[in-house]
Design brief:
Keywords: Membrane, Transmembrane, Transmembrane helix. This is YrhK family protein. It comes from Yoonia phaeophyticola. This protein has 90 residues and is mainly alpha-helical. It has one domain. The chain contains three helices and no strands. Helix 1 runs antiparallel to helix 2. The longest helix has 32 residues. The radius of gyration is 18 Å and the shape is rod-shaped.
Length: 90
């Protein structure tokens, strides 16, 4: 099994389940981060809410930083389910 191979998600039912879980997590992170950035942007229009807007931007940025972590988690999960001999040959 090759790492970051788009066909890995279809190797077994366990692979499909892991892929689905990670896709839901990825989508939830994207939605949450976008929502925080939108609300933070609106809050920047009033000087009295700039402090909370800055925090929303920071949390949104952290969420966007979690996106590659979810993909890495998925790939490590595939490795745990898959064939280590293919990786050794790479």
């Amino acid at each position: 099994m090759r790492i970051f191979n788009p066909d890995n998600h279809a190797k077994s039912d366990q692979h499909k389940r892991l892929y689905a879980i990670c896709e839901v997590a990825y989508s939830a992170i994207d939605f949450s981060a976008a929502l925080l950035f939108i609300v933070g942007s609106v809050l920047f229009f009033d000087e009295s809410t700039t402090y909370i807007a800055t925090w929303l931007f920071l949390v949104g940025s952290v969420l966007f930083g979690m996106r590659p972590a979810v993909k890495l988690y998925r790939e490590i999960g595939y490795l745990r389910l898959g064939d280590y001999d293919d990786i050794a040959r790479q």
